[in-house]
């Protein structure tokens, strides 16, 4: 007969364990024993056989457990957000708000905190072989710097904001390089390419609201394939020589132009001075004529002779001509008297006499004419 059949309770193993009539342990008895042990540790007295005391010890144990659990739960909710970060709060997986840097508290097992770095500047490179507008292949390397400005958009706008930005950078770079010539990419158009990539990248990421801002775009390197590198190096050297020659020409022009302008200015000043001198001389002649006019009206003949003599004196005083009077074999030099320092007479078979003034002007006389006088003018023996 089985031990658990009716009328066979004497064979219950829980009651007869150890040879005595024992049953399974009761929860109250376990708590009572635990309370006694705790009381004994802290020096308290234990009572035997009291059911009321067992129940009181059970209540105390449960209260202690609840208090300890509450304290542990409360302390487990504290967390820290770093100074450069901003925290995204998710409550049961749904966005609940953001928290600022410092010590904060959350509901454990309810809230989830995602820290986002808001101040650090991040780098993202991009490179590859690309086809240019003039159907050449060039390898371009570019790097951008960016940072997060909106933590919520950075986390929830797309699945992965960094990956989306990387794909946008590749797209913008290939678009700009595909619309540019290879010579511009390798030489003088690098700055224009960089600005164009920056503008195109901003246009691409703007509709996605990634919560990012592009800080800078760096054009690191651009080079042709190795198979044609030597030819492109020669082309670049020729372009550099062209730029150098242009700079030298500009420097030469900057040096010549001021001097030419100075000469022009000097000529203008000389022309103005000449004009003023001529005008003043004319005005002086008019004034002199106005002073002579009354004298001429009073004695016309005397005035004419005086003007003639003064004019002839002025004319012959400024030239190397001499006037010689030949009469009856006597030669006399009249003009210019102030220049006669040396006189030399030479007689020849024809009866001609030569005079040599100080200015090396030889005066040759000729026989008298039918009137008995002749005026000879000779310059330098001619």
Summarize the structure.
It contains 8 helices and 12 strands. The chain is an alpha+beta fold. The model is unreliable at 16-21, 41-50 and 344-382 (pLDDT under 50).
Question: How would the blueprint of this fold be written?
Answer:
Layout: H1 27-41, H2 51-76, E1 78-81, E2 85-91, E3 94-99, E4 102-105, E5 111-117, E6 122-131, E7 137-148, H3 151-156, H4 161-178, H5 182-186, H6 190-205, E8 212-223, H7 229-298, H8 300-316, E9 323-327, E10 330-335, E11 354-355, E12 363-364
Antiparallel strand pairs: 1-4, 2-3, 2-5, 6-7, 7-8, 9-10, 11-12
Helix pairs in contact: 1-2, 4-6, 7-8
Indicate the mean pLDDT. 75
Distance between the termini: 180 Å
CATH topology term of the domain at 122-224: Tetrahydropterin Synthase, Chain A
Q: How many extended strands?
A: 12
Give unreliable regions as ranges: 16-21, 41-50, 344-382
Helix count from the secondary structure assignment: 8
Largest sheet: spatial strand order: 3-2-5
Q: Can you tell me the CATH architecture of the domain at 122-224?
A: 2-Layer Sandwich
Helix content: 40-55%
Q: Main sheet, how many strands, which sense, barrel?
A: 3 strands, antiparallel
The proportion of strand residues reads 15-25%
CATH level 1 class label of the domain at 122-224? Alpha Beta
Class inferred from helices and paired strands = alpha+beta
Give a structural overview.
The structure is a single chain. The chain has about 375 residues and is an alpha+beta fold. Among the domains are: about 45 residues; about 40 residues, no CATH class; about 100 residues, 2-Layer Sandwich (Tetrahydropterin Synthase, Chain A), CATH 3.30.479; about 60 residues, no CATH class. About 45% of the residues lie in helices and about 20% in strands. It is built from 8 helices and 12 strands. The strands form 5 sheets. A 3-stranded antiparallel beta sheet has the order 3-2-5, with no helix packed on it. A 3-stranded antiparallel beta sheet has the order 6-7-8. Strand 11 and strand 12 form a beta hairpin. Helix 1 packs across helix 2 and helix 7 runs antiparallel to helix 8. The longest helix has about 70 residues.
């Amino acid at each position: 007969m089985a031990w658990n059949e009716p009328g066979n309770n004497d064979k219950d193993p829980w009651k007869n364990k150890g040879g005595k009539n024992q049953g399974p342990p009761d929860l109250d008895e376990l708590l009572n024993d635990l309370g006694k042990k705790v009381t004994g540790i802290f020096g308290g007295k234990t009572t035997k056989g009291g059911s009321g005391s067992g129940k009181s010890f059970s209540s105390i144990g449960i209260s202690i457990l609840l208090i300890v659990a509450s304290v542990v739960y409360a302390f487990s909710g504290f967390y820290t957000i770093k100074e450069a970060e901003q925290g995204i709060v998710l409550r049961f997986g749904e966005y609940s708000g953001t928290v600022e840097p410092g010590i904060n508290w959350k509901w454990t097992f309810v809230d989830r905190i995602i820290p986002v770095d808001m101040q650090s500047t991040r780098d993202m490179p991009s490179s590859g072989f690309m086809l240019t507008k003039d159907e050449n292949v060039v390898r371009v390397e570019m790097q951008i710097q960016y940072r997060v400005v909106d933590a919520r958009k950075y986390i929830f706008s797309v699945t992965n904001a960094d990956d989306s930005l990387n794909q946008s950078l590749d797209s913008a770079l290939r678009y700009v390089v595909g619309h540019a010539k290879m010579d511009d990419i390798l030489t003088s158009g690098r700055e224009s390419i960089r600005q164009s990539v920056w503008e195109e990248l901003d246009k691409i990421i703007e509709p996605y609201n990634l919560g990012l801002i592009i800080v800078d775009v760096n054009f690191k390197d651009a080079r042709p394939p190795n198979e044609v590198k030597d030819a492109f190096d020669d082309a670049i050297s020729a372009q550099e020589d062209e730029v150098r020659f242009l700079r030298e020409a500009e420097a030469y022009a900057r040096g010549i132009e001021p001097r030419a302008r100075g000469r022009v200015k000097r000529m203008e000043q000389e022309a103005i001075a000449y004009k003023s001198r001529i005008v003043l001389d004319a005005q002086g002649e008019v004034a002199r004529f106005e002073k002579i006019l009354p004298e001429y009206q009073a004695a016309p003949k005397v005035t004419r002779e005086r003007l003639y003599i003064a004019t002839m004196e002025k004319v012959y005083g400024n030239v190397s001509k001499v006037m010689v009077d030949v009469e009856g074999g006597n030669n006399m030099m009249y003009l210019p008297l102030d220049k006669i320092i040396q006189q030399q007479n030479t007689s020849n078979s024809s009866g001609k006499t030569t005079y040599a003034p100080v200015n090396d002007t030889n005066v040759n006389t000729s026989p008298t004419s039918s009137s008995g006088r002749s005026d000879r003018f000779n310059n330098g023996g001619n």
